[in-house]
Design brief:
Number of helices of chain A: 9
Radius of gyration of chain B: 21 Å
Strand content of chain A: under 5%
Largest sheet of chain A: none
Largest interface: A-B, 20 and 34 residues
Largest sheet of chain B: 2 strands, antiparallel
Strand content of chain B: under 5%
CATH topology of the largest domain in chain A: Four Helix Bundle (Hemerythrin (Met), subunit A)
Structural class of chain A: mainly alpha
CATH class of the largest domain in chain A: Mainly Alpha
Helix content of chain B: over 70%
Helix content of chain A: 55-70%
CATH architecture of the largest domain in chain A: Up-down Bundle
Number of helices of chain B: 20
CATH superfamily of the largest domain in chain A: NADH-ubiquinone/plastoquinone oxidoreductase chain 6, subunit NuoJ
Shape of chain B: globular
Structural class of chain B: mainly alpha
Strand order of the largest sheet of chain B: 1-2
Oligomer: heterodimer
Chain lengths: 207, 483
C-alpha cells in the first residue's frame, strides 16, 4: 500500500465518521462542527485527486463562509432539540430504504461496464509545475466566459429576487432625515395665529 | 481560444438587455412613487431596441460565436424578436393592474427583463450548458415574479409549488444532460449530434439520458403527466405574471425542444424513440387539458388547462419530425402566444382595484357593457377554439396536416376530436358574454395605449387568420434556414 492509498483510507474513514456524527450528535453546535470536519477531510481527498483549486475553494467558501453562518444561526436561534428529534425513528426506516436504493443504483452504474475503470482510463500524470488553478481560470475566462457571465447574472437575479421578496419598509419606523432637518424653514414649524385680545377673565371663572 | 469583436457583436442584443436591466435597477433607486413610469418606459425601450437590433443584424445563415456556446440562426432571430415583443406587450397590459396592486415598480420590470434575457440565452444556445443556464435564468425570474405579491397567500403558495416542481424538473434535465455528456463526451450541440451520428456513443446511456430530458421538457412545457403545477400557478399568480408565464416562455420552450431533441438528439434511432414518448405526452395533454377545462369556473384556471391542451398541439407538430411539422409547431407557438396575450389582457382590462375579474361570471353580459371588447374577446376565444376565419384554425390545420403527412392519421383524428370537446368551453365564454345579463356594471377603464394595443391584438387574431401566409412562410423559412 502506497503512502497515498494509506492517506486516502485514513481520510475516507474520518469523513465517514464525521458525516455520521453530523446526524447523530445531540448538540447542533457539535453537528455543525463535525460538518466542518467532513468538509475539510473532503477537501483533503480532492487534494489527493490533484484538484487543488476545488479543495481550497471548498475550505474557503464552505468552511469559511457557509458553516460560520450556520453556526451563527444555530447559536443564535433557540432551537428546541426535542422537537427536532421528533420522528427521528419514524423517518429512519424510509430514509434507510431510499439510501439503500441509491447505493444499489450507484453500484449498478459504477460497477457496470459503462463506467468501469476500463471505460474511463486514468489521465496521464501532470508535470510538477502544472497549475490546476491557472487552467481552471483560463477555461472560465476564455472558453467558458459566456456561461460564466450568465451564471453571474443568475446570482444577480437571486439577489434582486431575495430583496424584492423580503425587504419591507416599515411604516412605523422612526428615523431622522438630516437633510430635511437642515432645510427646515421657520414657516414650517412656527404658526402665527392672530387672535382677538381677550378681556381679563374677571377672576374666578375656573374656580 | 481568443474572442474577437465578432463574438461580442453576435451577442449584442443580450448584452444590451443585461446592461439596461442594471441601469433600471440603479435608476429605480432614485425614483419617487409617482415617477415609476420612467422605469416602465426604459423597460419598453430596452425590449424594442433589442428586437430592433436582432432584426437589423439577422443573417440568413448560422453564425456560431463565443467558442461554440452561442448560435445565431434564423430560428433564433425570429423567436427572440417574438419574445421581446411579447414581453413588451405584457409590460404594457400589466400597467393598470400592477399599479393598483403595488407591483408597478422597478423589480417587476427588472425581473421581466431578466426572464426575457434568459429566454434569449436559451433560444440562442448552442451548448447544453447554455440551454440549462438560460432555462434557470428564466425560471428563477418567474418564481420571483409569481411571489412578488407577497401578502397574497395564493401567490406565495403558487410560487412555492412552482419553485419546488421547477427545481425537480431542472434536476431531471441536468441529469439527462449529464448522461448525454457521459455517452458522447461532448456538450456542444453539433458535436454531440456528430458523435451520435458516427455511432461512437453508447446507446443505452443515451436512451437513459433521453428519458430524463423528455421528462424535464414535459415539466417545462406543462404537458400531461407533468402538468400538476400549471393550474395552481396560473390561478395563484397575479394575472399580469400569469399572462407572462403563459405566453413568452412557450416560445422559448419550443426553441428548447428544437435545440435539445431535434438538433442534439436528431439521429434517426433516437427520433423514433422520442416520437413515441412525445406522442404519449401529446395525446394525454390533449385529453386531460380539454376535458378538465370544462369543469373550471375560474377563467385563469380554465386558460391553464387550455394551455396544457395547446402544448399537446404544439407537440404534435414536433412529433411529425419533418421540417414542415417543426414550422407548423413554431407557427402554433407564435399564434398561441398572441391569443394568450389577448385573453389575459382582457382579464387585466376588466380587473380593478381589489377585483380580479378572473371568474367566468365576471364576463357575463360583456356585450351590454362594451360591444367592442366583447367582440375582441369573441375573436380570441374563436381563435383558441379553432373556428375558421381566425388564426387559431389555421394553426391547428397546419399542425394536423403535418401529422397526416407524417402518416399518423389516428393522431390527427384524436387531435380533431379533442379540439371539438375543447370548443365547448371557449364557446361557453361567448355565450356568457352575449346572452347573459351582466352581473357587474362598473365602467371599463383603461389608458389609451392598452385600448389600442388590445384592439390590435384581438383584430390580429382575425387578420392573421385571413392572411396566414406570411407568418407561416416566415416560420418555415426560419426552420429551413436553421436545420
Amino acid at each position: 500500500m502506497s503512502f497515498q492509498t494509506a492517506i486516502f483510507y485514513a481520510f475516507a474513514a474520518i469523513l465517514l465518521f464525521a458525516a455520521l456524527r453530523v446526524i447523530t450528535a445531540r448538540n447542533p453546535v457539535h453537528s455543525a462542527l463535525f460538518l466542518v470536519l467532513a468538509f475539510v477531510t473532503a477537501a483533503g481527498l480532492w487534494m489527493l485527486l490533484e484538484a487543488e483549486f476545488l479543495a481550497i475553494v471548498l475550505v474557503l467558501v464552505y468552511v469559511g463562509a457557509v458553516m460560520v453562518l450556520f453556526l451563527f444561526v444555530v447559536m443564535m436561534l433557540d432551537i428546541n432539540l426535542d422537537r427536532l428529534r421528533e420522528g427521528y425513528w419514524d423517518y429512519l426506516v424510509p430514509a434507510l430504504v431510499v439510501a439503500g436504493v441509491m447505493v444499489l443504483e450507484m453500484a449498478t452504474i459504477l460497477l457496470g461496464r459503462y463506467f468501469s475503470l476500463e471505460g474511463m482510463p486514468r489521465p496521464s500524470p501532470r508535470p510538477a509545475d502544472y497549475s490546476n488553478t491557472r487552467e481552471l481560470g483560463r477555461l472560465v475566462y476564455t472558453e467558458y466566459v459566456y456561461p460564466f457571465e450568465v451564471a453571474a447574472v443568475l446570482l444577480l437575479v437571486a439577489i434582486v429576487a431575495a430583496i424584492a421578496l423580503t425587504l419591507r419598509a416599515r411604516k412605523d419606523s422612526k428615523f431622522q432625515d438630516p437633510a430635511r432637518q437642515v432645510k427646515v424653514k421657520r414657516a414650517d414649524r412656527v404658526r402665527l395665529v392672530s387672535m382677538p385680545a381677550e378681556k381679563p377673565a374677571g377672576g374666578g371663572k375656573e374656580g | 481560444m481568443t474572442l474577437s469583436a465578432a463574438d461580442y457583436l453576435a451577442v449584442w442584443p443580450e448584452i444590451l438587455v443585461l446592461v439596461m436591466v442594471c441601469v433600471i435597477l440603479v435608476v429605480d433607486l432614485f425614483l419617487r412613487e409617482s415617477q415609476r413610469v420612467i422605469g416602465y418606459a426604459l423597460a419598453l425601450a430596452t425590449l424594442a431596441a433589442a428586437a430592433g437590433l436582432i432584426a437589423l443584424s439577422s443573417m440568413p445563415g448560422r453564425v456560431v460565436a463565443l467558442n461554440g456556446m452561442f448560435v445565431d440562426d434564423p430560428l433564433a432571430d425570429a423567436l427572440k424578436i417574438a419574445v421581446c415583443l411579447v414581453a413588451g406587450v405584457v409590460v404594457v397590459y400589466s400597467r393598470g393592474y400592477a399599479t393598483a396592486r403595488g407591483l408597478f415598480k422597478g423589480e417587476f420590470f427588472c425581473l421581466v427583463l431578466f426572464a426575457a434575457l434568459g429566454m434569449m440565452v436559451m433560444i440562442s444556445a448552442n451548448h447544453l450548458l447554455m440551454l440549462y443556464l438560460g432555462l434557470e435564468l428564466l425560471s428563477l425570474s418567474l418564481y420571483a415574479l409569481v411571489a412578488l405579491q407577497r401578502d397574497s397567500r395564493d401567490a406565495t403558495e403558487a410560487a412555492m409549488k412552482y419553485f419546488v416542481l421547477g427545481a425537480l424538473a431542472s434536476g431531471l434535465l441536468l441529469y439527462g444532460m449529464s448522461m448525454i455528456y457521459g455517452a458522447t463526451g461532448q456538450l456542444e450541440i453539433p458535436k454531440v449530434a456528430a458523435t451520435i451520428a458516427e455511432g461512437r456513443a453508447n446507446s443505452t446511456i443515451l436512451m437513459f439520458g433521453l428519458v430524463f430530458l423528455v421528462a424535464g421538457v414535459g415539466f417545462k412545457l406543462g404537458a400531461v403527466p407533468f402538468h400538476m403545477w400549471v393550474p395552481d400557478v396560473y390561478q395563484g399568480a397575479p394575472t399580469a405574471v400569469t399572462m407572462f408565464i403563459g405566453t413568452a416562455p412557450k416560445l422559448a420552450a419550443f426553441a428548447f425542444v428544437m435545440r435539445l431533441l431535434v438538433e442534439t438528439l436528431g439521429a434517426p434511432a433516437l427520433v423514433a424513440e422520442w416520437r413515441q414518448m412525445l406522442t404519449l405526452l401529446a395525446v394525454a395533454s390533449l385529453a386531460v387539458g380539454n376535458v378538465a377545462a370544462i369543469a373550471q369556473t375560474n377563467l385563469k384556471r380554465m386558460l391553464a388547462y387550455s394551455t396544457i391542451s395547446h402544448m399537446g398541439f404544439l407537440l404534435l407538430g414536433v412529433i411529425a419530425a419533418r421540417p414542415d411539422g417543426y414550422g407548423a409547431a413554431m407557427f402554433y407557438a407564435m399564434v398561441y402566444a398572441m391569443t394568450g396575450l389577448g385573453a389575459f389582457g382582457m382579464i387585466l382590462l376588466l380587473a380593478r382595484d381589489g377585483f380580479e375579474a378572473d371568474r367566468l361570471e365576471d364576463f357575463k353580459g360583456l356585450n351590454r357593457r362594451s360591444p367592442w371588447y366583447a367582440f375582441l374577446m369573441l375573436l380570441l376565444m374563436f381563435s383558441m377554439a379553432g373556428v375558421p376565419p381566425t388564426v387559431g384554425f389555421y394553426a391547428k390545420l397546419a399542425v394536423i396536416e403535418a401529422v397526416v403527412q407524417a402518416g399518423q392519421v389516428w393522431l390527427a383524428i384524436v387531435a380533431v376530436l379533442m379540439s371539438l370537446i375543447g370548443a365547448f368551453y371557449y364557446l361557453r365564454m361567448v355565450k356568457l358574454m352575449y346572452f347573459d345579463e351582466p352581473s357587474d356594471t362598473a365602467p371599463i377603464s383603461a389608458d389609451m395605449g392598452v385600448r389600442v394595443l388590445l384592439s390590435i391584438n384581438g383584430l390580429a387574431a382575425l387578420a392573421v387568420g385571413l392572411l396566414p401566409g406570411w407568418l407561416m412562410a416566415l416560420c418555415q423559412k426560419a426552420i429551413q434556414g436553421s436545420l
